[in-house]
């Protein structure tokens, strides 16, 4: 599983780019012409955006924390999978701004007046890495694969929970039919999780990721590295690309390096040309080095939060949840561990996420050890044992927070140690069993045998609140409701916001969710993740998408 200026005004909610008309359909896509520029094909020097000669065929090695759990974007929910797969799979549409979308594999689209049917005109002349032509069959196969229970999607299926079917009109026209209006649909389609897959590859007995992207899958050393090679037939980049034709890089290697110091050392010693997750303790050092560049982006979506399982044990009592929240000096922990590079969070979503409501912080139970003790007394946990842990009816106030080393990054284990120590000071015991991936998923995330779990999630839309707090969106059902919240009121707000075409109503609903989540202490917000990417000066034209993932299509390496 960077410091930005704060604004008190809620951002506008993502919306479809044009207003509905009284005719049966509205056009919201723009037909995209394909321009072929001379001098940018494989092996032929071109020009970079600064006018210099572009070097072709280099191998860029990118170090990243974490590892691949699955190669299938429809299955895995990890950031590493999205980072890698963005280079393999293209999407029907591209997110071009907070509330705008542009054509990609779809050249245009229309939406029915009832908001339930999207008709896409598909780009001609596109082929998958295995030679299969891109047609309407691929769109239907990809979306059907996501929602198929056999796929066991851990995230992608929740993005299109309103999906009903895909109708093929002709080889280059499809209609995607939804069960109800769902305004975040275009944003969902723009994510790597819903990238279009080869229908031929999806029928193979052994899964292999095959898309239409600028790089093709080559090999995977599980837990160590994944290698991609340039797709020389590529001619259809996303909006904003600085060239057309194949990528400049010949190979792209992702090395999985969990240990911060090792990853940073690999960059500064030249073993890799770029890394994600520059350790905050090293960020200032890197920014002063003349041979390197530090890129910093605050991440949209869910903050790094600790989720309180309100369905079992002591945390069923909101007084205990608020007491735990009051026991933690979040600001002190975050500032001491991240040296000011990660903003302290006060909301389930980050400030750069559309729909963020700054006033929701007023419902957050902030740090106050005396208040925490008073709340525990009020909840009946008014005795302590010899270890100083609160006791009620003969039971200790002990919580389980499983530790998953393979999925831990950004020194989150250090954060957890600090929270445990502060909670202990008011009489709350937190146990941290170390578990492998299988146990973490089966016993805890699916089995529910935990009291606390920590996670962040990047997605540039307030619909991420539905992912995290809609009652039916449990992990077992491809959702992120790890607090196991069961609230008809929250359900009404998140589904109402997703269905309405009225931005004011949606903004109000999303605001209400943020207030209620903090008021009920379903989470303890910790920090806003910041994409700290470091790369050598030899790396040129590296760009970043709406989710802050690096884009390697235009990138090249100086000789």
UniProtKB/TrEMBL annotation:
Q: Where are the transmembrane segments?
A: 23-44
User: GO biological process: any one?
Assistant: peptide transport
The answer to whether UniProt assigns keyword Transport to this entry is: yes
Instruction: Give the Gene Ontology MF terms in alphabetical order.
Output: peptide transmembrane transporter activity
Which Pfam families does this entry report, sorted A to Z? Answer: SBP_bac_5 (PF00496)
Output the superkingdom of the source species.
Bacteria
Report whether Lyase shows up as a keyword of the record: no
The protein's UniProt keywords, in alphabetical order, are: Membrane, Signal, Transmembrane, Transmembrane helix, Transport
- In what residue span(s) does the Solute-binding protein family domain sit? 101-464
- PANTHER family referenced in this protein's UniProt entry, alphabetically: OLIGOPEPTIDE-BINDING PROTEIN APPA (PTHR30290:SF9), PERIPLASMIC BINDING COMPONENT OF ABC TRANSPORTER (PTHR30290)
Homology family: Belongs to the bacterial solute-binding protein 5 family.
Question: What is this protein called in UniProt?
Answer: ABC transporter substrate-binding protein
Q: Which organism is it from?
A: Nocardia aurantiaca
């Amino acid at each position: 599983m960077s410091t930005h200026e704060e604004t008190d005004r809620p951002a506008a909610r993502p919306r479809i780019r044009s207003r509905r008309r009284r005719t049966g359909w509205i056009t919201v896509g723009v037909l995209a012409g394909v321009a072929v520029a001379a001098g940018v094909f494989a092996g032929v020097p071109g020009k970079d955006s600064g006018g210099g000669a572009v070097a072709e065929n280099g191998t860029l090695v990118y170090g990243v924390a974490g590892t691949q759990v699955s190669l299938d974007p429809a299955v895995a929910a990890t950031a590493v999978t999205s980072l890698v797969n963005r280079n393999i799979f293209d999407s029907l549409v591209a997110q071009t701004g907070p509330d705008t979308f542009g054509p990609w594999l779809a050249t245009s689209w229309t939406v029915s007046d009832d908001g339930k049917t999207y008709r896409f005109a598909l780009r001609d002349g596109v082929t998958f890495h295995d030679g299969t032509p891109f047609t309407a069959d691929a769109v239907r196969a990809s979306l059907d694969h996501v929602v198929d229970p056999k796929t066991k999607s851990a995230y992608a299926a929740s993005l299109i929970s309103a999906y009903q079917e895909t109708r093929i009109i002709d080889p280059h026209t499809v209609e995607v039919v939804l069960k109800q209006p769902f305004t975040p649909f275009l944003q969902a389609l723009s994510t790597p999780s819903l990238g279009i897959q080869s229908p031929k590859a999806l029928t193979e007995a052994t899964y292999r990721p095959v898309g239409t992207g600028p790089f093709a899958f080559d090999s995977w050393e599980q837990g160590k590295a994944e290698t991609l090679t340039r797709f020389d037939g590529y001619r259809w980049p996303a909006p904003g690309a600085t060239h057309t034709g194949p990528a400049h890089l010949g190979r792209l290697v992702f090395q999985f390096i969990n240990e911060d110091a090792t990853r940073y050392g690999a960059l500064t010693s030249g073993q890799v040309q770029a890394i994600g997750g520059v350790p905050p303790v090293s960020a200032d050092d890197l920014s002063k080095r003349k041979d390197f560049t530090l890129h910093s982006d605050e991440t949209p979506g869910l903050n790094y939060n600790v989720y309180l399982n309100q369905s079992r044990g002591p945390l069923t009592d909101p007084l205990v949840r608020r007491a735990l929240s009051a026991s933690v000096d979040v600001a002190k922990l975050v500032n001491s561990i991240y040296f000011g590079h990660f903003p302290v969070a006060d909301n389930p979503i980050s400030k750069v996420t559309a729909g963020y409501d700054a006033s929701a912080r007023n419902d957050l139970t902030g740090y106050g050890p005396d208040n925490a003790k008073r709340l525990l007394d009020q909840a009946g946990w008014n005795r302590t044992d010899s270890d100083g842990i609160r006791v009620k009816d003969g039971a200790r106030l002990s919580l389980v927070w499983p530790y998953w080393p393979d999925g831990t990054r950004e020194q989150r284990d250090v954060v957890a140690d600090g929270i445990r120590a502060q909670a202990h000071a008011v009489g709350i015991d937190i146990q941290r069993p170390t578990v492998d991936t299988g146990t973490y998923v089966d016993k805890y995330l699916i089995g529910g045998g935990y009291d606390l779990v920590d996670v962040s999630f990047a997605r540039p839309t307030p619909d991420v609140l539905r992912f995290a707090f809609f009652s039916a969106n449990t992990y077992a059902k491809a959702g992120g409701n790890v607090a196991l919240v069961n609230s008809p009121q929250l359900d009404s707000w998140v589904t109402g916001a997703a269905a309405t075409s009225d931005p004011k109503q949606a903004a109000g609903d999303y605001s209400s969710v943020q207030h209620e989540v903090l008021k009920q202490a379903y989470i303890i917000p910790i920090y806003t993740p910041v994409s700290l990417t470091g790369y050598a000066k030899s790396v040129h034209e590296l760009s970043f998408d709406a989710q802050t993932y690096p884009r390697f299509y235009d990138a090249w390496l100086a000789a």
